[in-house]
Amino acid sequence: RDFNERCAQCSEVNWGLTDGGKFYCKSCHNVTERTREVVNTDFITNSRVQTISKGLRKQEKNDGGCEWYICEGFQLVLKKQAEALEALGVCPEMKDEILCNFWRCYLQKSKQAYCKRPAGETVKALSVCESSTDVDSDPERPSLLHLLSLSESEGDLQTDCSFASSVSKVSESTSVYSGSVDGSLYLMKNQKEKLRMTMPMTLSFCYMALLWLREPITLSELLRFVVEGHIPYLNVFQHFPEKMKLCGLDLKIFCVESWPVYDEVFNKLHELAAFLDLPRFPDITESCFLHPDMLCMKYLMEANLPDELHNWTCRVVKKIGIGEVDFLTLTPGNKSTRKVKYDVLSAAVIVVVLKLLFLLDDHYEWLLSEFAEERNKNNTEVCVFHSGGPYFEFKKWYEVVKHSLDVEQKKLDEERAKYLWRCEKSLFYSVKNKSKVLKRRQMVVNLQNQFGKLSGSVQCAEKPNPSSFQLRWSEENTNGSCFHGHSLKGILQEKCGLLTAMNPDYWLCTVKLCNEKLCGHLAHYREVEFPHSYHFVLGLFSFLLRIQPSYIHDEVCMIEHKLFNKKLCKKLKYNTVLRK
Amino acid sequence: SSHEHKLNFKKSKEACLNYIQDALLQKQWKRAAEFLTCYVESLEKDYSRERVGPSEMIWRIGTEILWHHSQSSMKEFSCFMEQMKTLGVKRYLKVCLEHVFHLLCNGQIDEAYQNLSLAESWRFGEQTAIQDKEMKLIQAYRGLLDYYSWSKQKNILLEHGEDGFSDLAVEQEMHGYFRKAAVNLKEIIKIPGVWDIFVKCYVDLLEFYGDHNEARQVLNEYAYNSKFPANPNAHVYLYQFLKRQGESKNSLISALKILHDIVPSHELMIDFNTMLQKSKKRKKRRLGLEVIFAALDYAGWKENAKAWSCLVRQVKQIVSSEKHLDWIKQEWNPRKEWWPAFHFSRYLAKRNWQENKSLSYEKALVAGILLGKDCKYFKYVSRQGCKAQLKRFRMLKKFVNRHDPVHLRISG
Hints:
Chain B: It holds the Pfam family TAF1_subA. By secondary structure, chain A is mainly α. Chain A has helices spanning 70-88, 93-109, 132-135, 144-150, 157-166, 183-188, 191-194, 199-212, 219-227, 249-254, 262-275, 292-302, 309-320, 325-328, 342-358, 364-382, 394-417, 431-453, 516-519, 532-545, 549-563, 565-571; strands at 15-17, 22-25, 31-35, 492-495, 498-501, 505-507, 577-579. The longest helix of chain B has 32 residues, at 132-163.
């Protein structure tokens, strides 16, 4: 603000601040060594260079807090998340360059920083002197209750109402509606225009950066790490510095009480990419982790399926063209192509392959399994396997995997019931609320201690180390519970030099695809209409990816329609069982 | 479904409650405590729209766990209850009351009394009026404990009296407790409800001090006021009181009438039948027969020799006089399909003979009359009895043989 020197490179006086607190020239991006003193080095100041129209900004408030803006809060959140990802092994570029740039671009485009103040927009949030009754007279100013309802986070009706009615008159420069300067303004903004920032969106940012760098992590993994606590999300405001006081409407913005949903993060990601006018993302090629060939290999391993199936997944991928660079790479703003969910897609490919080879109609796969069992029995007497391992027996695989899946699912269900959502740092809507909240917190802690002691030897377990694989199968186990090396010989045959499945049939999940834009799905998954084996397989991947089976089902339908496109066009009127 | 991937605070806590419920039902207190530890943070969230909020849940679940958990002490329990009292002002008196119950169960009478007194003095704006019922209960229980103290003093006094000592101080104390107890007990029994223990104690007090009129009034109210829920004990208490007072058979009989209607299997039915049998009025004797047959419909009475002897007495009397055989017919009609298998099987004949000869004697007579001398039960028992050369069995055989045609008239 006070820096009036001319830039060494371009002689302009147009300064901005980098995150490191250094002045840089906005015209030519020349960074100087002059730094601006920051009160707290942890506190990344918002690089607003424009002065606020009503005068000097008061740095300190009476209660030891300072003025801060919502986007500064989000910036902190992103920083913490990026640090966590770096700790998990993501390259530092992600935090230092990619995410930073995305964020700055966002701030600029949404006119929160790095730009001229748009005319007419004042930073002054809802004036304190207005009570809710006054508000009626001014139709442009929504009431506090209205603002509270705008927020996406769940509200307590009673707390909202009591908060709204408890607002009292305070001095002009502070807003009691929120600890931040622009909390109320933030909620008031028209969402569609400027893509208002939310907590789930922070994950969209993170994933966007990861995708740009083609890091070996899928969106479902990212979300799983969030839930497992390796990436800050819930209660991330704990890490805000003391001076950034949160209260009132800030809580609506930063306190989440639900885990992010895959679809929400995914869709926001694309919206964001388009909003930021990003160019085409770096190519996803065959050697990329996110390429279906790679992901299929990973998922096959995790699902304890024979490695040989990988040939088949590759064949399917190739046949329907979903391994093409243009198909896989994200081009923001391109509305004609379907957005690719790499993890779901790969899982669906495996499901389709299983259907191709085993039919999964609750009969054929068991029949094949019996044949395999016979052959295995005969062979053990002779102790010779031609090549590869024993014949793959669907039945055995099912039993082994189901058992593990049930155990893991049970654990997961219990963990979910035991989540602790609150943290040490208490938040209150208003000062009036404070003592009640603190008392409650104290009681909660007391009760936790009392009953925690009675819980027996079960103590709060250490967070397990984050890992990419949830189910592990070892070939060293002699009990035969690992199927990676098993052979598909029994179910394949050679025709014209090509290996094909012995299974001649295939059943389509749906004959006609729905219009995704209308009802959100390509198909409608209702458990009762499909064979149990199909459920089971969907259920398995649903567990691994932590998403609803219906999403995988959608992708399966999409793949099937691509695969059998020609036949479908001809035979739409016939029954759904096709001959390949 | 449990595989719902969209998870939020509310769903998470609902799931937590399910686990707690399972654990409680299976008496896995440690596991229940484990999940409760995770549930308590619900207190920090407002559930005012729900019918049962987390504070009530935690109170009830916590109470169960602390009461049953092996490592939990009474001190911890009380400490927890104190915390719960601060949690919900609308529930304050209820929590106090339940705390008192637990203390009583644990034998801590003095602490219970202290808590009751404390609760009695509680005032909280309009809540005091809203929680009026709970307050009355608290006062009633304090009255009960006062009665208990009175009772102790009374016993001391009686002991001293035997030894020839008289203790004025003890007597004064006793009267003091009486006054305190009477006031509260009288209040609560005015409200329609089931107050057995309060009524009993109050009547005991009244009788001791000679106020029989008041006692009679109280018991009548309790038994006959239609606003009060139907309560067999009310009639029992009234009956016992009247008996103590030496009332006439007629008033005793009328006291037991309703009891027979609501609990035909009540143990007092023997007394009832005995009185009715001896009555000069035909209607009453008829009722007596009805009463004893009805009682013997119940499995619990199958081996009650006294009851059977009552029936025998009446049946003998009727059969010998040959008057009112139709009474027996009327009673036997709805029973002739199932009583033979229920009471008079051959298996039972053997068992009764082995275990209780008097019982088999009484039953054999009834069987012989109702089913004829050729019925399994009678044949077996009378043969055994005659083999054993027991005189009364010979008499039994004679009697039944003489009146054998009766069974045909009865069952026809």
